[in-house]
Amino acid sequence: MTKIQKKQNGDMVLLAGSSHPELAKEIAKHLGIPLGDVMLGRFPEGEIQLQIRDNIRGKDVFIVQPTCTPPNESLMELLILIDAARRASAKRITAVLPFFGYARQDRKDKPRVPITAKLVANLIVSAGASRVLTMDLHAGQIQGFFDIPVDHLYSINVLGSYFKRKKVKDLVVVSPDVGGIKMARGYAKLFDCDFAIVDKRRESASQTHVMHIIGSVAGKNVIIIDDMISTGGSLVEAAKALKNAGALDIYANIVHPVLAGSAVERIQKSVIKELIVTNSIPLGKEKRIKKITQLSIASLLADAIYRIHYNESISTLFSSAGVEA
Q1: Are 31 and 4 in contact, with CB atoms under 8 Å apart?
Q2: Which residues does residue 197 pair with via DSSP β-bridges, in sequence order?
């Protein structure tokens, strides 16, 4: 029996949609509780049909549902699950979002564009969520878009511990853009090394052009740090520029492996030696190549769920993360 399982979890219920049932089952195993019984189907025209088959009246409900591909289906399932739990008289409903979709549009950076991160936050609150547990948000300020408590976890200890065991010498941590400096500084502190920045110009949602490399990478092994990889264009372009600047082996620590379109093919053909990701998003068989290593965050999420349920502090999960909670 694990440390998490020592107390009785009788009034804790873990539910999951269809976006990542494997992660939900792994979390349930760490918590020592069964995964709740949810019937998910579709009406003839495609609308989502759902029923929670367990009695959750007065229970502390946690709904595991990353809003990953297909994002619209995953988001709608989450909202309907929250609504069903609220109408079933759950005591408290926590939306567990290992990956928070629609986060890239978090501000008005051009005329007549939406702020989808705020819109999704409003939808989750309106559906009836009491709390949100998420990980490595695309932008930290998204926490403030919610009018309910948000626990924001970081995967730095999971990803960092794996890479530290490699004992790579002459290491430099690289942020692929100016916005990732805080995260890169945290990893640099963890690895006790210097960090550099790739100055790039974004030409479209999937294309970037590297302008400058701020810092020295010549004769160094490099690990690129970022929160998400979508098409892989930016990462591959940055890796190529670093190699041209004299870098040796190039690794990448990316939290959320969206890997859309031809991203896997790009990674396979790139100069990147290894791409290390978490299982915040499931990897299909076609994305499981030798260059990609996926690490589990189930124990981290289970620990946070346990602490939320028993009203214990979550701040201890950030004590060695190298970033502020």
Answers
A1: yes
A2: 175, 214
CA distance 98 to 118: 17
Write out pLDDT tens, residues 212-252: 899 999 999 999 999 999 999 889 989 999 999 999 999 99
Whether the CB-CB separation of 180 and 228 falls below 8 Å is answered with: no
pTM of the model: 0.92
Structure token digits, residue 265: 């093919």
Domains of the chain: 3-154+298-318 (3.40.50.2020), 156-295 (3.40.50.2020)
Find the catalytic residue in 200, 240, 243, 273.
200
- Are 277 and 2 in contact by the 8 Å Cβ rule? The answer is no
**CA–CA separation, 18 vs 25, rounded Å?**
12
Q: How far apart are CA 200 and CA 219, in angstroms?
A: 22
pLDDT on residue 320? 47
User: Angle formed by the axes of helices 21-31 and 298-309, to 10°?
Assistant: 60
H-only helix segments in 104-179: 116-127, 156-164
Residues 6 or more apart whose CB falls under 8 angstroms from that of 262 comprise: 231, 232
Residue 273 annotated in active site: no
Of 72, 94, 74, 91, the C-alpha closest to 82 is 94
**Residue range 61-78, pLDDT digits in tens:** 999 999 999 999 999 999
Nearest to 156 by CA among 164, 144, 167, 146: 164
Would you say 273 and 290 are in contact if contact means Cβ atoms under 8 Å apart? no
Q: How many helices (H) and strands (E) does the chain have?
A: 8, 14
Q: Where are the beta strands (DSSP E) in 144-291?
A: 150-153, 171-175, 194-202, 208-214, 221-229, 250-257, 272-278
The CB density around residue 126, as the number of other CB atoms within 10 Å, is 12
CB 87 within 8 A of CB 41: no
